[in-house]
Amino acid sequence: MASNDNKMNTATKNSIIRHAIDWALAHGLNYRVPVTFSCSTQAIPEPIKYAATHAPFALTPAPFPKVCFQKAKDLQPVYNELFHNISRDKEFIDSAVKSLGNTDSFITNLYDIYQKVQSEGLAQSITLGIHRSDYMVHNSKNEQTLQQVEFNTIASSFSSLSYLTSELHRYLAKSQIYPESCKIDEKNIPFNDSFLSIANGIAKAHELYGIKDAIILMVVQPNERNAFDQRWIEYNLFEKHGLKLIRKSLAEIQEEAILEGPDKKLIVDGHEISVAYFRAGYTPNDYPSDVEWQARLKIERSKAVKCPNIAYHLSGTKKIQQMLAIPGNLERFIKDQEKINFIRSSFTGLYAFDQSEVSKKALARLAENPDDFVMKPQREGGGNNIYGKDIPPFLSKLSDKEKEGYILMDLIRPEVQDSTIIRDGKAEDFKVISELGIYGIYLSNAEDQSVINTQGGYLLRTKSSTSNEGGVASGYGCLNSPLLQ
């Protein structure tokens, strides 16, 4: 698929860049500027603390196969159902966590909370999942197949900024700011409903909670750079649903929140919380002390609807993803064979570091062709994976017990394209690859009946083909839109 960036002269390209940056800044396609200080205790000056710039984005949308885009959307409700069923299966979660051993203190601490609330009894049976299933289009022998990278069950970001990115590209096409030679028709940039879908899901969970005057709690990281992506959810909750949202860090929640009464209502700032929506808590860095772990336990023990609850969080580990590739495990959760085949068609090769024949064959392949693999720990947020030739020396430093905390995955090889990435007001040309994420909303009531099960829009991230990681907030990639072909 040819790039559109090479079909314009320099003057035209510079003019489009200026249009695009101004549109982004004017419409809130922004995040806070990074701030670094040599002294961690130094207060951040107020003007710098609130300074912002546009989020990194691609100048033109990325050509993307229409059939793969549609398949990803169609898969999402089936994946929502699958991971909901996993979250209800204590035996399966127990076996997954125990297979990791005790080498991962982060997973161990999450599991300790899970065990405590399971033993104590759940104060809230309503479940809300706001997920994102990420894919790449694997190119092999001129055949393109959609393959899943991972399934995210906590803090799936960029639903707001991804919508704004698609609207930016649609605007530049519709207003004919893109030259005709680019052949970018805004009708081929699919509308992205991720802007409202997350707020709609939270609002419906609030409705099921049944206390009209309760409010929403968003659990956030201190000094969050991606605050504007989150703020749009807050604004949509208020403007579309009349619901108030407050933002608190885990440390603030531990200090200020209480559990009230025998039903353990979560009270913050004098308000009852209907939904606790996590945009933090997915990385060990979010738990610098026991204070944050106590806050997480307090939320889990409460009556508030958790998004996600601790069972959903554990269900999203890489180990669960690998276990689902083992024959027979999908059938444990999904009874419809057509759905099982549909899900399995999106799998790439996934392996444990164990003594199974499948794993032994994968390790033999790894020894011969390490560039065909990626090694993943039980982490979210980017910057954690080990790729290609770095895997064997990394493995050699691990004990057999430590290896249990990782999975091995066949490397997906998407098509390399040309793109111009705009970051901090500067444009730079790259050879790039792209990753598609589809948001999913799943809500079940206290009787475990599905109330919402739908896809909720998309995220397309583009990164340099020479970069192993693709996180936008972590500085590896940029936001983009698909140009369906």
- The helix-and-strand class reads alpha+beta
Query: Mean of residue pLDDT?
Result: 94
Low-confidence stretches are: none
Q: Please give the share of residues in helix.
A: 25-40%
How many helices? The count is: 17
Principal-axes geometry comes out as globular
Q: How much of the residues is beta strand, in percent?
A: 25-35%
Largest sheet: 7 strands, antiparallel
Task: Evaluate the radius of gyration.
Answer: 22 Å
Keywords:
single chain; 485 residues; alpha+beta; 7-stranded antiparallel beta sheet; 6-stranded mixed beta sheet; 17 helices; 21 strands; 38% helix; globular
Describe the structure.
The structure is a single chain. With 485 residues, this protein is of the alpha+beta class. The protein is 38% helix and 26% strand. It is built from 17 helices and 21 strands. It has helices spanning 10-27, 46-49, 66-87, 90-99, 105-120, 159-174, 194-209, 227-241, 250-256, 290-301, 310-315, 318-324, 329-333, 337-344, 357-368, 391-396, 400-403, and strands at residues 30-32, 52-54, 57-58, 62-64, 127-140, 143-152, 215-219, 245-248, 258-260, 265-268, 271-278, 305-307, 350-352, 373-377, 386-387, 406-410, 417-423, 426-444, 450-464, 477-480, 482-484. The strands form 5 sheets. Strands 3, 5, 6, 17, 18, 19 and 20 form a 7-stranded antiparallel beta sheet that branches. Strands 7, 8, 9, 10, 11 and 12 form a 6-stranded mixed beta sheet that branches. A 4-stranded antiparallel beta sheet has the order 13-16-14-15, sandwiched between helices. Strand 18 (426-444) and strand 19 form a beta hairpin. Helix 1 crosses helix 6 and helix 5 runs parallel beside helix 10 (290-301).
